Amino acid sequence: MIQHHTLMRSADSWDTSLDITPGLIELLVTEQRREVLYARLPTPPTHPRALSFILEGLALWNGKRSCVVIYADKVVHPSLGLGRAGDEWPGDNPLVEYMFVERSPHRRESGR
Questions:
Q1: What is the pLDDT confidence band of residue 109, given thresholds at 50, 70 and 90?
Q2: For residues 90 and 83, is the Cβ–Cβ distance under 8 A?
Q3: Model's pTM, two decimal places?
């Protein structure tokens, strides 16, 4: 069994990006620029922690801490389950660290 404290970010970790737009989350996981997983998920999720569970599960599957880059027009809303109630920014944990990239209003960036 993988222990949380043994999970560390390394060069061969999966890179994960979330492209968040109204009504849709695009999830892209790559390893050394090769696609591991791609999903288009409608929002909002039925369970408030569903997205966090997916991201943490991917880190457990890979056995390494994941770095998740969030592309969005504004800071992610807590209804996506990434932040605490009243806190719109998701907190890092032993399985996942987050980076936020604000998308310009005229240009949509996507991992695909």
A1: very low
A2: yes
A3: 0.78
